[in-house]
Structure formats: structure tokens, C-alpha cells
User: Fold this.
Amino acid sequence: MIRWMRVLFPKICPMCGEAVRETEILCAACAQDLPQRPKKALIGEVNGRPVYCRALYRYHSAVRRALLQMKFAGQCSRAEGFGQLLGALVAGETYDLVTYVPMEAYRERIRGYNQARLLAEYCGAVCSIPVKPVLYKTRHTAVQHEQESTGARARNVEGAYAAHPLNGASVLLCDDIATSCTTLRSCVHALKQAGASEVQCICVALSGRAL
Ligand SMILES: [Zn+2]
Assistant:
């Protein structure tokens, strides 16, 4: 999907949406005013090794606006810069594959794209790691950010994801926002059940609730 996006859309700064040169990621103004990078959040363990979620940013107003534009306003081209920054975040690390949190098919049809998949594809392209759709949903779930408590979020996604057999592959899992990390936990559990040897998670923004 990312191959034709460049044909249709010029490259933009993922944070503010201004046009940038092909060699740039953030525009000069956004690059100077970067929000703080959050601490990593512990998600679980696979094979006795801790699984962390690392993020580019704390979830604050400018990042929130940028992600809402990417997700709901059709500005999927913001995924290019964020995906490339995610690639830089894991530079030098080796994984057998990059994957992403899947969307329900009907929601993806309405939106036209899955922003987590786009992030994974740009990240994978930077890191030269293949991107594979190994996770899938096993049942319908309500919209996660509309759940009122962490407990409700956890119940909403518990057992809602499964993964195709992984035969010992190490996996880098991408998503756009992690708030309570319950979706990532459910996905990591599915990857572990499917035989992943290692899992690490990355996302654009991590909210205070996850820290
Ligand atoms: Zn900018």
C-alpha cells in the first residue's frame, strides 16, 4: 500500500502536516519543539524476557491532534514520517518480522486503511524487516477508547486476538496509540500462544495511564 501513497500524496511532517523535503521527516519547527519521549511501559513477558512498549512521544496535545488527523481525517500520509521515526527508534535491533494491531475488516473498509499497518510498513521499510499480517481478530470488540475503565478495556479485548503460527519468530509489534496497553497485552498474549520467541512493541504515543 505504501508504494502508491507516494504517488498520490506529497511527503508531509507527521506532526503538523506541512510539506517537507523527501529527505526530511519532521519540519524544522517541529524538530525543534519535540515533546518528551516517555519511559517504556512493561507489557508482559515472552520466554522469560520482558516485553516493553516504547513510544516516540507522550500523548499530549500536538501528538493527539496529529494522530486524530492520521486516523479520522484521512491524512494517512502522516504515517510515513511517524513510521520512519519508529524505524529509527529500533535501529540496530533485529526481528524476524514486523506486524501491527489489526482492525476489524468493516472498520478498515470505512476508513480505507489501517494506520497501524501503515506505520508498520514504513517502519519495516526503514529497518529492512518484512512486514507480515500475523495477528487477526477472533471476535468483535467495542471501541477501546470509549471504555470507561482499564478493567472494561481489558475485558473488551481479552481473547479478541489470535496469531498465525510463528515457529519461534521474533516479532516487533506496531500500533499508533497505547493508553492502558490492554490491546497490546492481548496481542502479545496471542503472539506468545502462536510461538513467538520474542516480542517488543512500539507506538507513536504512550499516554500517562500506561506509564
Ligand atoms: Zn511540522
